[in-house]
Specification:
The chain has 510 residues and is mainly α. The chain is built from 19 helices and no strands. The structure holds protoporphyrin IX containing FE.
């Protein structure tokens, strides 16, 4: 044990204090940091699948299809590899990561097992990579696809277990029922996928009939209710909308259940869902736009327009051009639109209170995405049906616009993740009465800095007592407390959040 490692008496005493029953415990930053690291891993995996296996392959597919003027000119394994990487690899990873991070908290509990959260991450990322690579290289899919489907199914089951802390249903609200309906949809999708790949197909292609069923479930039974549920949670606060109507949401959910086998009912479900969210009603309070592009609320509303377009096109016809346009109105217009607008507003705060790298890139990526999606959805049916041959020339433009949007979004979030954690307090708040544990757990680089300043015990200790103040730690080693406070203050000035710097400058005066 660390306590026995020849640590100073003050440390031993602090460990004893920590162990005392009934001791008033200060907020421990460590669990939140661990959870944020897990979320960061899901987001990083999602971004990777979005850019490389997802979008680059999608753009390649569309450019090939357009140059040959034929929707079937690209090998089916490439189309399916793209779809799987985007829908499950990117959107799935974002949804699972965010759900593990926030659902247990919203439901008044804790994630059941952070270790299982990491196992889920490894299984999910491994399964998506396995499925993608064996499909693209057309080798080993006979064993890899059933294995990947089993791994994804296991993650879907673990997701439900992880996000139901004991007693959770008693605290369920509208958003929880919608999100759980979506998780059930994910489970159904995974079961259909398992059926599609077992026994393994002769070639690395899922037969069209069952593939379309699976995509229909992934889009409408999984992604739609989950994004709708999270919208019911976030949008009233972020966009200043009124409280969602639970009665209308129930009607919309019923229409969704009926619409899964009868897609002509889906537009009615979408309209009722939009009405229940009051997405097109005037805001009752100003939107929360700090730290991001102030126009993002309009893009959120536009995403719901794309959702309605997707449902209408899907109800209209199953011809490849219209089905493709409907699918991308959903995936690019609705899903990517929502993630590109809400993600930059909420993710930095979830990821250990970071700041978004660039607010301007949010607006640019959303404008590019909208232009690309409009061209794609508008011209794909015309090109595929042979109504307007020149429409083939527009599709590569849509692909390049969407690619640019994706790259800017991914760059923005990756840079946000890679930038060192900002400090959200002023140098005068750096005090010797604060605990050593808090400094080191909240800002891990302070460990090295404090060791260099003379706290040699930190080098040996495997654990830090939670109640040991900086002053006690300094006295225990015979170090001047100022020798610790000064480098700490310099560190926190360097790391100060951009949002606080203007206040600091104002305080400093002209
Ligand atoms: C740069 C943007 C994108 C391009 C250029 C692109 C291109 C394509 C192309 C050419 C196809 C095959 C033909 C068709 O269905 O129209 C396709 C199918 C598909 N795409 Fe995309 N796509 C993009 C973004 C996305 C996104 C963001 C998602 C999901 C979040 C997505 C999900 C799918 C799915 C599920 C399929 C059907 C796969 C299958 O049949 O198994 N795509 N995409």
């Amino acid at each position: 044990m660390a306590q026995g490692n020849g640590l100073p008496a003050a440390w031993q005493e602090a460990f004893r204090r920590d162990a005392q029953p009934g001791r008033v415990r200060l907020a421990d930053p460590a669990p939140e940091r661990r959870l944020a690291r897990l979320l960061a891993a899901w987001i990083a995996a999602g971004l990777f699948f979005l850019v490389f296996p997802g979008t680059l392959v999608g753009v390649w597919n569309l450019i090939t299809i357009s140059s040959r003027e034929s929707g079937t000119s690209v090998p089916a394994p490439w189309v399916q590899a793209h779809g799987h990487a985007q829908l499950l690899g990117w959107v799935g990873a974002f949804i699972i990561g965010i759900s593990l991070y926030m659902l247990p908290k919203l439901r008044g509990g804790r994630l059941r097992s952070p270790a299982a959260g990491w196992l889920m991450w490894a299984l999910w990322s491994g399964a998506i990579a396995l499925r993608w690579s064996t499909g693209i290289f057309e080798a080993g899919w006979q064993w890899a696809w059933p294995a990947a489907a089993g791994m994804e199914l296991l993650v879907a089951l673990l997701l439900i277990w992880q996000t139901w802390p004991p007693g959770a249903p008693a605290r369920f609200q509208l958003r929880d029922w919608l999100i759980e309906a979506g998780f059930l949809g994910l489970l159904l999708t995974m079961l259909v996928q398992a059926q599609a790949v077992w026994p393994p197909p002769q070639a690395p292609v899922v037969p069209a009939g069952i593939n379309n069923r699976m995509l229909h479930l992934a889009v409408w039974a999984f992604c739609y209710p989950v994004v709708w549920g999270y919208s019911a949670h976030f949008l009233p606060t972020l966009l200043g909308l009124g409280k969602p109507s639970a009665r209308l949401a129930c009607i919309a959910l019923g229409l969704l259940a009926a619409g899964l086998p009868f897609p002509w009912l889906l537009p009615a479900s979408v309209l009722a869902a939009c009405w229940s969210l009051r997405i097109f009603h005037p805001s009752q309070r100003p939107a929360k736009v700090a730290g991001t592009d102030p126009r993002y609320p309009w893009f959120v509303r536009l995403s719901f327009v794309w959702l309605a377009v997707s449902a209408l096109l899907g109800a209209l016809s199953e011809s490849p051009g219209i089905a493709g346009a409907s699918r991308h109105a959903f995936t690019v217009g609705f899903l990517a639109g929502m993630i590109f607008s809400i993600g930059p507003r909420i993710l930095p705060a979830f990821l250990s209170s970071r700041e978004l790298w660039s607010a301007r890139l949010v607006g640019v990526s959303l404008a590019l995405l909208t232009a690309g999606c409009a061209l794609r959805v508008g011209f794909e049916p015309l090109a595929y049906a042979g109504v307007l041959p020149s429409a083939w020339a527009v599709l590569p433009v849509s692909a390049i616009l969407e690619l640019a949007a994706v790259l800017l979004f991914a760059l923005n979030i990756a840079k946000t993740l890679a930038t060192p954690l900002p400090a959200w307090f002023f140098q005068e708040n750096v005090k010797d009465t604060m605990t050593l544990y808090w400094y080191v757990m909240s800002y891990p680089p302070t460990r090295k800095l404090l060791i260099r300043a003379g706290l040699k015990s930190l080098e040996r200790a495997r654990r830090i007592p939670q109640s040991l103040t900086l002053r006690e730690a300094a006295e225990a080693e015979g170090v001047e407390v100022q020798a610790l406070l000064e480098p700490l203050r310099r560190f926190f000035v360097r790391r100060q959040a951009r949002a606080l710097r203007s206040t600091t400058a104002k305080r400093a005066g002209p």
